[in-house]
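Subgroup meeting minutes
Present: P.N., E.W., G.H.
Scribe: E.W.

1. P.N. recapped why we're keeping a running log of single-chain structure predictions: easier to compare across weeks, and new members can see raw inputs and outputs side by side.
2. G.H. added today's entry (225 aa).
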Amino acid sequence: MATPASDLVALFEVDQAGDALPEPSWNIPPTTTVPIVVEPAPRDDSPPVRRLEAARWGLVPSWADDVSVGARAFNARAESAATKPMFRDAVRERRALVPADGWYEWRRQGEAKTPFYIHDDAPLTFAGLYAWWKQPDGSWLLSTSILTTAATGALADIHERMPVVVAPEMRDAWIDPGEDGEATLEAVVADAGAVAASLSMHEVDRRVGSVREQGPDLIAPAATR
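Output recorded in log:
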């Protein structure tokens, strides 16, 4: 996510921004920190407060024995998330928006793999889930997972899966703690194909495959280098 946190606060009408928000990045691997937008259910009759928080990418549920669980839970299949013990509570109660300028996907043709950058003119929001896990030192770790669904249209020519991109008009409902989680999940997945059809994509340099690589040139079309 290369968009600064201050811009995300304005874009998503955030009420409170948390501490230690991640710096802009053009190449984010799982288990590192990403920004998420959440609206936790209030403990009293006060209205929900929309927050921008830093979360570890890779969901660690409250019952996990070790943080390493999150290394295999950075994505959640939308088709089964509502019933999987790893994700079902989050579907019901802890849904997040994960802002992103775009994402990289690799197309495999035989032994060759070609990276593409998929994006829009404005920041996207992935449908995310989040959880709190109490660490051995007593502090709390916030973590997140991104929902995926079957790729459609031109994206299906690159990869069989894609992140669930939440349409702008569905963002409020997705994180609203008063909405039925399973019904809202069905709604955003139903819209995902139409949202994906409006996105642009282009081939980028294979350097994106190394997490050490950074900089805006990573998202430039390969042919213009």
